[in-house]
Specification:
The chain has about 230 residues and is an alpha+beta fold. It folds into two domains: about 120 residues, no CATH class; about 100 residues, Roll (Nuclear Transport Factor 2, Chain: A), CATH 3.10.450. It contains four helices and 15 strands. Strands 1, 2, 3, 4, 5, 6, 7, 8 and 9 form a nine-stranded mixed beta sheet that branches. Strands 10-12-13-14-15-11 form a six-stranded mixed beta sheet. The termini are far apart.
């Protein structure tokens, strides 16, 4: 009789834990930010699977963002899951998990032995993304890397670029400059007198630009411009 009573209680505990886990995942989906490309939108049930898998893979709660992206030039798509940001002064660290969905990859695609699978989704371990905060006109802009420059120098140059206070060299395609997202600098790099700044394209997943810049007194001159197209 006692054994039957204990077994029944254990069963009720397992059911309670399972219901609690599902409730937590549902609560997570209500708070999460979504950023989906047109060809890669997740349903509510799929989002629950994605969040559940992300937690199993070691992404710390709360999950704050799920995004999808094109993997140009292939027709495949991918998923990124993001944890909460931690800010220490000007440095921002975030846990990121890249995730695969079998129906968005080549036929027969499977996870590796080191990856965790749930349904049609799989992933490895999360990594830590680090970014640096630049303060521009009362708002924050983030960049991945600064080398050979101070924060103040980067901010000064970025303000001039945002305001259009720059000159261009003879080789610059001014129409192409209209495609640059000045609010998304990927990095600032200086070696000697050589200065380059990376920016993302305004259209998501459409590559990035590398601008070679020179400075003469307070003037900013874009000497060369390279575009990386996926």
């Amino acid at each position: 009789m006692k054994r039957h009573y204990m077994t029944r209680n254990l069963s009720l505990i397992f059911i309670y834990v399972a219901v609690l886990s599902v409730s937590n995942v549902i609560a997570q989906t209500e708070k999460v930010e979504r950023d989906y490309v047109e060809r890669a939108k997740l349903t509510e049930d799929q989002e629950k699977e994605v969040i559940s898998l992300a937690i199993k893979c070691g992404l710390k709660k709360p999950i704050v963002r799920i995004s999808t992206h094109n993997m140009f030039p292939t027709p495949f798509r991918g998923i990124r899951v993001q944890g909460v940001e931690k800010i220490n002064g000007r440095e921002v660290t975030t846990q990121i998990l890249s995730m695969s969905y079998s129906k968005w990859l080549e036929p027969g695609a499977k996870p590796s032995k080191s990856q965790t699978r749930e349904g049609d989704f799989w992933a490895g371990k999360p990594y830590t993304q680090k970014k640096i905060i630049l303060k521009i006109k009362g708002k924050e802009v983030r960049t991945s890397s600064i080398q050979g420059m101070t924060l103040e120098e980067c901010e000064m140059i970025l303000v001039k670029l945002l305001d259009g206070e720059y000159e261009t060299g003879a080789q610059i395609n001014k129409n192409l400059l209209q495609e640059v997202d000045w609010n998304k600098p990927s990095g600032f790099f200086k070696r000697g007198e050589s200065l380059s700044i990376g920016f993302l394209h305004k259209v998501k997943d459409s590559g990035f630009f590398d601008l070679q810049i020179s400075r003469k007194n307070d003037k900013i001159i874009i000497e060369q411009m390279f575009q990386a197209i996926p």
